[in-house]
Amino acid sequence: MDQHGISRRALAALALGGAGLGLAGCDTAPGTDLSPKSRQFPQDFIWGVASAAFQTEGGQTVDGRGPSVWDGFEKLPGKVVDGTDATVATDSYRRYAEDIDLIAGARLDAYRFSLSWSRILPTGEGPINAAGLDHYSKMVDAMLAKGVTPYATLFHWDLPQGLQDKGGWKNRDTALRLADYAQAVVAALGDRLKHYIILNEAAVHAVFGHVLGEHAPGLKDISLLGPVIHHMNLGQGLAIQALRAGGGDLSIGTTMALQPCRPAGGPLAIWNRLAADGLDGLWNRAWLDPLFKGTYPQAMDDLLKGGVVQDGDLARIRQPVDFLGVNYYAPAYVRLDLSSPSKIAPASPPKGAELDAFGRHVDPSGLFEVLEMVRRDYGAPPVLITENGASDPFGKGPAIIDDTFRINYLRRHLEAVLAAREAGSKVGGYFAWTLLDNFEWALGYTSKFGLVAHDRATGVRTPKASYQWFKALAESDALPLKP
């Protein structure tokens, strides 16, 4: 994760598109008091941490791995703010056993990690690289031996370069290749790997990779947004079908970057609400609606013209899932702008709002808000919080070890989870982002989210105060009032 939550630049880019406005907002007021009646989580609540292959593994050229879109992109001048790359990252391809020891040592139940598609299928299709599957087989075995349940994400933004060369997610064929990849994984690992997440934050990948050009594959073409969104949704549906056909008792879901879309205040607040509803359609419901309802929101109408959606596609996308993964960091603020085709423009958070390292509003009520939206509008599916966390202030210096600010962030957002559960949301687990300080995409190593510091020079892993706090929480299932 890095620039999670839609940025002002991303909003500005969407404002250049031709999407119409939808009408489906969220209603919880910012800063709502969400003090839960009880601070006790159930004993079967899942505590975990999350990571991604490209951000942690390193080993980009070993054991037959093919290049992903990020391999070349990260080395382009100016694409990563500190000029670094993930050639080594946290060296977790070699040192995964140490990482698993840290997870087990914190008494956590689960580890959400991602598989490198191009490590298993070097060009994204064709012959399987046995060494890649063998690596993940060993990882899964190591987790199970330590009592840690593996949750594997199939796609966390690192599309094989071979598929990008054929058009990437613009090309409908990529959706079929995702299903082939899922089939290869479940055939090799499905006897032990039982929990699958198909896509990670597809909205972020679609916008930052294909409209803004700030993430790989580095494209800047608003016309790609509709085909990319649809083909990722289609690939997800086909991959779910492939997993169901190839495995036994599996738990399958997907992870979305959900956020409240809030109107700017002032005399035009009622009109700004229209803009907020439009963005909600593009960022949240363009993924939720097809999965749970088999439709697209009105905001997608113009983006999907020209035969992008074929007969039967929406039925293929609308597959039963065992859980929805929700990643939450911050709300988005927008205003109406009649000079743009979409009528959407970015707005600033309220004056005096607490801001994070990205300049986003730190507001736990936003997490309650999106959980209520999912419960209210999509049939109250089981939910896992698959990412939530806070970065150190940006910089090249060492990590903050006494990270009380991070503990407070986690504690307040977990209060929102408890409040959402009391309101009826079926939240069954929480995965903190992230285990180790790692390569944060376009931010390189300047953004540190880890519960554990990583020294890039030595590889030494040093648990922070937040690691110890999270360990105590996982052991007791009781959320403390104070750090």
What features would you describe in this structure?
This protein is an alpha/beta fold and 483 residues long. The protein has one domain: Alpha-Beta Barrel (TIM Barrel). Helix content is 36%, strand content 13%. The protein is built from 15 helices and 13 strands. The protein has an eight-stranded parallel beta barrel, surrounded by six helices. The chain has a three-stranded mixed sheet with strand order 6-8-9. The radius of gyration is 21 Å and the shape is globular.
CATH-scheme architecture: Alpha-Beta Barrel
- CATH class term: Alpha Beta
Gross morphology: globular
Number of strands: 13
Helix content: 25-40%
User: Main β-sheet: number of strands, strand sense, barrel status?
Assistant: 8 strands, parallel, barrel
User: Could you name the ranges where pLDDT drops below 50 across 5 or more consecutive residues?
Assistant: 8-28
Number of domains: 1
Question: How much strand?
Answer: 5-15%
Alpha-beta content class? alpha/beta
Termini distance? Answer: 25 Å
CATH names the topology as TIM Barrel
Biggest sheet strand order reads 1-2-3-4-5-7-10-11
Computed Rg: 21 Å
